[in-house]
Task: structure prediction
Amino acid sequence: DGGITQSPKYLFRKEGQNVTLSCEQNLNHDAMYWYRQDPGQGLRLIYYSQIVNDFQKGDIAEGYSVSREKKESFPLTVTSAQKNPTAFYLCASSPRTSGSDEQFFGPGTRLTVL
Amino acid sequence: AQTVTQSQPEMSVQEAETVTLSCTYDTSESDYYLFWYKQPPSRQMILVIRQEAYKQQNATENRFSVNFQKAAKSFSLKISDSQLGDAAMYFCAYCQGGSEKLVFGKGTKLTVNP
Result:
């Protein structure tokens, strides 16, 4: 079945550690996105990528980094510079680079900083 | 910057009844798209309905329809014959034409009472 997978489902991190969240899609979509969701908030865009080896900052990119070495993969690293990383992280993809297309979402990763 | 406002943090409806969720947005653009996404307790985001700003006709998908009032910058979602499975967070989202960025509202939590 085609879709988006995110791993792990739950992730615990000690303060000062970097962690990487995985996002893989087999939909052959060009564009991929990372969002952060906090309680009582909508989704906020962290980073997005329209093509391999290229990505752009979203609204809250500080403390995060990404790579896009393969079309199907868009991992997100939460660095120690991110002051409040505890949140729910959602990865999405869309067929084309225009935002007018539907974005398809993965099941999410819940990150907790201990 | 574009903003999306959902003024109802929580709503409830009786099973089989109709409920309307409100959404307003702020933009000076004429080319844009609007979306309603559903996030059930599983936290998987699912597209409910999509509206192109240049279309005057309101979008419908089975029991879901929108009331798109472009001059008033309003985009409400009507759910008819509510079912228990409709219980979820509902997010309104805006995307400027040619942009990759979705701007989300903070969401409305819908409870369906049997």
Summary: Chain A has a mean pLDDT of 92. The first strand of chain A starts at residue 4 and ends at 7. DSSP finds no helices and eleven strands in chain A. Residues 37 and 43 of chain A are 5 Å apart (CA to CA).
